[in-house]
Amino acid sequence: MSNVCAVVVTHDRKDMLSRCLGALAAQTRPPDHVVVVDNASTDGTLSMLEREYAHVEVLALATNEGGAGGFHEGMKRAHAGGAEWIWLMDDDTIPRPDALEELLHAPDRLEPSAAPVLLASAVQWRDGRLHPMNFPTPDRARMAQVIASVERGLMPLRAATFVSLLVHRRAVDRHGLPLKHFFIWSDDIEYTSRVVLNGGRGYLVPTSIALHDTEAAHTAESAPPGRFYYHVRNTLFMIRGPDRPRRDKVLRGWVLVVTAIGYLVRYPSGASVAAIMRGVRHGLARRPGS
What we know:
With 290 residues, the chain is an alpha/beta fold. The chain has helices at 14-25, 45-52, 66-80, 99-105, 143-150, 169-175, 187-197, 225-239, 246-266, 270-285; strands at 4-10, 33-39, 57-61, 85-90, 93-95, 118-124, 137-138, 155-159, 165-168, 202-212. The chain is globular.
């Protein structure tokens, strides 16, 4: 039987974290181990975990390292602990009771030559529609593989988010960990697309469903300027990354232009312009990783 370690990243949302941990405990196939990475919370998260979740391993970071830093450290701990699969999620992820079981069944549908290292749940918002922040990115470049996989009830992915994502330890062995310096946003897209572009296989498992319980069904284009900055900067970091083919870099450049224009149309303010310009300046001037 596969050894699964769930990694949950949290910051100052102890009530939401409690719901997430309850959903993990209610799984028809529970994870073998749970690691909560606390990003320097100040709302009593650590005391709640000590009091109510003694079975959960807590990795308390001294400073808030963002989602990127949290997943980096959590995956590092799970991998060192011998986990075969690492199940990633934020504290506002509420997987359905059979979400993990369905993910683990997926490889049985595939030939050994198509063995996955990434398996993603279908992520919904409160109203049952797919969450726009977590739309799966299908792999359109290999249509024969797409057709063969769809016949087995799976969809090959080009990228996925860290919201109920199962990562095999082989991915960490070969491709390392998420990039801490991204802090928030696009760290998951960078990591998963890097894995797939360099030979790893990833699939959406539509029978595995998780709720992403955000206040609104938002995307990067509805974020405040201070957060949209990270979308701009980190997209440029991806474009400048060494492990990406030219076609991928061109595509990400096009996406950045379209989203930046859309953001300015939606939020025509000096703060929006300043955030985009700062993101461009830092994304181009700084060496990725500095």
